[in-house]
Design brief:
Order of helices and strands of chain B: HHHEEEHEEEEE
Number of helices of chain A: 16
Radius of gyration of chain A: 23 Å
Order of helices and strands of chain A: HHHHEHEHHEEEHHHHHHHHHE
Structural class of chain B: alpha+beta
Number of helices of chain B: 4
Largest sheet of chain B: 6 strands, mixed
Oligomer: heterodimer
Number of domains of chain B: 1
Distance between the termini of chain B: 83 Å
Number of strands of chain B: 8
Largest sheet of chain A: 4 strands, mixed
Structural class of chain A: alpha+beta
Strand content of chain A: 5-15%
Shape of chain A: elongated
Helix content of chain B: 25-40%
Strand content of chain B: 25-35%
Number of domains of chain A: 3
Helix content of chain A: 40-55%
Strand order of the largest sheet of chain A: 1-4-5-3
Number of strands of chain A: 6
Distance between the termini of chain A: 47 Å
Radius of gyration of chain B: 25 Å
Strand order of the largest sheet of chain B: 1-2-3-4-5-6
């Protein structure tokens, strides 16, 4: 490695900040990993040091698991925070928010790249949904239009959303307050928390975000009303009213827990969601709902509910496109990310993103006459 | 109309919007199913009407068996009624010419007058009929809850609340109304990748 001074503008301050926040690091943590001083990071992020050495840039890039070139490119602006829809049980801390926004920026850049190199993708069906009217009716229309019928369980929420034109990704890293978040870019983008131990909660979170993207397009969300509306949409999608009404287990005035767990297995919705749905549809009384909530808490099912599927749903579209593109293009180099970072971002196998050594990349050119 | 309740539950607490919408959805689904069954056929209005009647009736009867707040009651002949909580209700097609009260409706209303604790201010409604009425307008099914005040045999509309309007969606005829639909496994999202081609290092033939 050479310690030559690089020219002005080799590091774009905002790009470094986003790359650091994408990794969820503080300036101090990054400095420690990159073996530079915190002041160096501060100076680069504020633009006070415009001419870092090559060694410094390479060490920082390595610590961030990105390629040095990424730090020299104008980043994709993160989506405005007011159009991001967060689903979670707690307030998002400033640090989490910065991390999620930076992740949104990088994920947006990657999905824009993937979409730009596709000749064919599902059209954005979210934009075609008429969001007016009762949420139950909107959900019923969506179910029919998206091919899962009015009264059948949804086999895969991820696949449903991807077929409707969304890119679905995931994030890790203990953002405890956030189950999922979404925003409308050139396509609907949804990221869900893969640290969640409950696959049924992940499904609900994905459909909750779909609710925001359909019902609250261009609107600020996060208040009680919009969250309840998105929850209602997710419930109506997962547990359509008519079928739920027919199948909800009744046992006199007592709650039929065994029956509800059978429903959970069939519909892929948590018992907590089933109980809430029964209450919303006035199938159980407020008293029964209260009893059910106490039962859920007393059994520890609020934290860990039995009967969860073995594995959570995984994104399919972005990893498949990335793996296919990687056979033809130096994907990671063009995106400025290491294979490991890209594989985490799009949920693809790292090995599938490394192009074969004996492959060069060339755009297809018109055939010359022989 | 002035001083009319804004929501059905203000007229009677048992008439929760959720309950009414659920019944409205049964009606709308049945119409959609009947449309699907007779799609493309002509002069089948009677058969289609019978199919809707039978489908709604059977669905409500089944629902009545399994829920506390809904009771199905077979009346004389082919007539039937349901009760939402304590409120007797008839489900029928809307007609511009209000249908005269059927005997059993008058009987229900008479019984209701003494049994149903209508909110204060509503007691002046003697002989009150409550109906869920549906109409097909163009390709839409509209459902209303209507309360009729019966003077002699001619019902006079007291108030109407819209329960929902949906486009008639001709459901496949083989969709079983009360069967357990199994999950449809959708294929993965379809995509195609742009024209990049894999070229061996040694292949120089196409390089200009």
């Amino acid at each position: 490695m050479s310690d030559e001074l690089l020219g002005t503008g080799y590091i774009v301050p905002r790009a470094l900040t986003i790359a650091r926040e994408f990794r969820g690091l503080t300036r101090t943590e990054l400095a420690r990993r990159a073996n530079v001083t915190r002041q160096t990071i501060v100076n680069l992020e504020t633009g006070e040091t415009a001419t870092p050495t090559r060694v410094t840039v390479e060490m920082i890039a390595e610590a961030l698991d990105v390629l040095p070139q990424l730090l020299g490119e104008e980043p994709t602006p993160p989506p405005p925070v007011e159009i991001l829809h967060f689903r979670g049980g707690a307030r998002v801390t400033a640090r989490s928010s910065a991390h999620l926004l930076a992740r949104a920026s990088v994920y947006g850049k990657v999905t824009d790249y993937l979409a730009a190199h596709c000749s064919r993708l599902p059209p954005d069906a979210f934009a075609k949904v008429d969001p007016s009217g009762d949420i139950e009716d909107v959900a019923a229309r969506v179910r029919r239009a998206w091919g899962v019928g009015a009264d059948a369980p949804i086999h895969s929420a991820v696949r449903l959303l991807e077929r409707a034109g969304a890119f679905v990704g995931s994030f890790e890293g203990g953002e405890k307050g956030v189950d999922a978040y979404s925003w409308q870019s050139s396509r609907p983008l949804i990221l869900c928390n893969s640290d969640r131990e409950s696959p049924t909660r992940v499904r609900f979170g994905l459909l909750h975000e779909a609710g925001h993207l359909i019902l609250h397009r261009g609107r600020e969300t996060g208040d009680k009303q919009t969250e309840e509306e998105a929850n209602r949409f997710a419930s109506a999608m997962l547990l359509p009213r008519r079928a739920f009404w027919q199948e909800f287990p009744r046992f006199g005035s007592r709650l039929n827990w065994a029956g509800m767990f059978e429903m959970k297995a069939r519909w892929g919705a948590s018992v907590a969601a089933i109980v809430r749905r029964a209450y919303d549809l006035a199938i159980i009384t407020p008293g029964q709902y209260k009893t059910a909530c106490i039962g859920l808490s007393a059994n520890g099912w609020r934290k860990r509910e039995p009967g969860e599927p073995d594995v959570a749903e995984k994104p399919e579209l972005a990893p498949s496109i990335a793996a296919m593109l990687a056979k033809h293009r130096p994907l990671t180099r063009e995106l400025g990310l290491s294979p490991k970072a890209l594989s985490e971002l799009v949920n693809a196998d790292e090995s599938a993103l490394i192009p074969p050594q004996n492959t060069v990349v060339r755009l297809k050119s018109p055939r010359r006459p022989s | 109309m002035s001083n009319r309740p804004e929501h059905p539950h203000e007229f009677h607490p048992d008439l929760a919007t959720e309950r009414l919408q659920l019944i409205a959805q049964v009606v709308q689904d049945e119409i959609g199913r009947a449309m699907g069954k007779f799609a493309g056929e002509t002069k089948v209005g009677w058969s289609r009407g019978c199919t809707v009647y039978e489908g709604v009736k059977n669905a409500l009867e089944t629902m009545g068996l399994s829920t506390a707040w809904l009771k199905y009651q077979q009346e004389r002949g082919m007539a039937y009624s349901v009760r939402i909580g304590e409120v007797p209700i008839r489900v029928q097609r809307f007609d511009d010419e209000p249908k005269p009260a059927m005997d059993f409706e008058k009987d229900l209303s008479r019984r209701a007058k003494t049994q149903v604790p209508f909110p204060l201010g509503m007691t002046r409604l003697s002989n009150c009929l409550v109906r869920i009425e549906f109409e097909i307008v163009g390709d839409e099914v509209r459902c209303h809850l209507r309360v009729w005040n019966v003077k002699e045999d001619d019902p006079v509309l007291y108030h109407s609340w819209e329960l929902g309007t949906v486009a008639v969606d001709a459901a496949p005829a083989d969709v079983r109304l009360l069967g357990r639909a199994e999950a449809v496994e959708l294929p993965p999202a379809d995509f195609g990748v742009d024209g990049a081609e894999q070229v061996d290092d040694n292949d120089e033939s196409d390089v200009g």
